[in-house]
Every structure is written in structure tokens, then in C-alpha cells.
Amino acid sequence: MIRHNYHTHTFRCGHAVGEDEEYVLEAIGAGMQTLGFSDHVMLENISQPRVRGDFELTENYFSSIRDLQEKYKERIKILLGFEAEPFEDYFPYYKMLLESKKIDYLILGNHCALEDGKIVYFFSKNTSKENLIAYKNTLIKGMRTGLFLYVAHPDYFMGGYPVFDRTCKIISEEICDCAKELNIPLELNLAAIRRGKVQLGSETRYLYPYIEFWKIAKKKGCKVILGLDAHGPKELTHRANDLGIKMAKELNLDIVDRLEVHNYFKK
Ligand SMILES: [Zn+2]
Ligand SMILES: [Zn+2]
After folding, report:
1. CB neighbour list of residue 170: distance below 8 Å, 6 or more residues apart
2. What is the pLDDT of residues 108-164, one digit of tens each?
3. How far, in Å, from the CA of 261 to the mean position of ligand 2?
4. Which ligand is nearest to the CA of 154?
5. How far is the CA of 132 from the centre of ligand 2 (A)?
6. CB atoms within 10 A of CB 39
7. How many whole angstroms from 220 Cα to the centroid of ligand 1?
């Protein structure tokens, strides 16, 4: 049972379903204590239909979640955040959101890289060593900003890469070393577990979590948080979520189940 979840999406991103309040009621019904909304960040001048909501939806997102926070404050702690890519051009925007307390936190979701206003890498479609290195460099740059509460699915690069080769091992070690140094938790993400195992190369497995990555995280002594990454209210309570909890226990990971959002970002 996950009592504190910081990874929840909304319909605004175009690939999640349900009303915001339905997520809240589902969480309360399940006895959850913290429900953090972290929809895909909406960015000025970036249009990615069905990936993230348009920038114009931002105020609606903020007001809806803040209203629910107030309405249900006696029953559950609701937080407002974003899952955001480490796009350098937008770091000042992220910083402003945190400093002005328009949002409570950010989690780092490194899905793609942006250069000169264009998306240049999709990390779920890893096909090359170059792409893996770009993933790692982009991720570490984001981690070092201090803007992010934790790293969502750090093993996301295995979602499109057929085998955990030497390059995968090296970048995993670098990512875990950096997480350890900065004391930033890594998220074992449950979304792809709910989707079930798939055939990739010669392996039948979840796209992520990828066990070899988490063995390295364990060895390096990284802090780990479980993230539901819910894209529908019922995903908060999906039976398959227990498989992720079981996996984390079997790996004997150093789990943190609750995070303090209010002081992690220091100006
Ligand atoms: Zn999503
Ligand atoms: Zn993500």
C-alpha cells in the first residue's frame, strides 16, 4: 500500500483520464495520506498534443488542484506539482514557479531533450549508445539544479533499449552516484508494471523498472521512492501496484515513503 504518492497526472496532458476530484476520492477511499498531482509540465511555445497540455491550461490546473486541496484538507494532504523535463531554457520558469509557491514541487521526468526549441531525443525510443549518453547527461544536469524533489523513472532509457549492455551499466552507475551525492531519491515507477511485460529484443520484461538498474541503486546506497504515475483514478488502487512494492522489497531497496516538499528547494 502506497500512502504517499507524488506522481499523479490529469486529463490535461491528453493521455490520462478522469476528473481531478475522482483521483482525490479514490485516494481517500484507499486510505492514502498524500496525493501529489504532478501533471506533465505545460510549457509556453511547446506544443506536444497527447504528451502534455497546452500552456494555456496551466491556470486551470492550478486552480482546480488548489480548490481540491482546500476542500479536502481535513481528509488528505493534496500537493500541486509538475513532472518536468530538464529543459534548460525553462529552468528560470521552473524556479519562478517554486519560489512564488505557485506549485509545491517538481519531479524530474526525462522523456526527451530540447535543443534550439526543438525536441531532439526521445528517450523511450533509444536505439543508440549516443541516445543513452544524452539521456544520462540531460538527467544529471537536471538533478544538479536542485529544482527537483526526486527523479521519476531514472531507468526510463530501458523502455526502448533491448539489452542492458556496458553503456547502460556505466550510465546507471553515474546516475546513481549523482543521486547518492545529492541525496535525491530515485523513483521506482509502477506505470509500466501495470501495463505488463512485453517482448523487447530477446527479453520478456517490464519496460521499466529494470532490475539491473535497481541492483546498482541498491549497491550505491541510493534512496528510493515508489511512484504510482497514475493516469486514471483507478490506477491509484490497481492490483498490479503490489508487484512493484514486492519488487522493491525483494531487492531490499532503501525505501522512503514520505517526502517533505516544503524545504527541498533552496534558493
Ligand atoms: Zn504521462
Ligand atoms: Zn514520466
Report:
1. none
2. 999 999 999 888 899 998 889 999 999 999 999 999 999 999 999 999 999 999 999
3. 19
4. 2
5. 17
6. 26
7. 29
> What residue spans define the domains of the chain?
4-255
User: Residue 267 pLDDT > 80, yes or no?
Assistant: no
252's grid cell: 531490499
Give the C-alpha separation, 60 to 19, whole Å.
13
Starting from the CA of residue 12, give the closest ligand: 1
Closest ligand to residue 230's CA: 1
Whole-number Å distance, alpha carbon 182 to ligand 2 midpoint, is 21
* Ligand lying nearest the CA atom of residue 109: 2
Task: Indicate the pTM of the whole model.
Answer: 0.97
In angstroms, what CA-CA distances link 96 with 121, 159, 196?
A: 26, 32, 38
Using CB atoms within 10 A of its CB, is residue 164 exposed (0-12), middle (13-18) or buried (19+)? middle
CA of 103 to the centre of ligand 2 (A): 18
**Of the candidates 135, 151, 221, the residue with the CA atom closest to the CA atom of residue 186:** 151
Beta carbons of 246 and 193 less than 8 angstroms apart: no
CA 228 to centroid of ligand 2, rounded, Å: 11
Fold of 4-255: TIM Barrel (3.20.20)
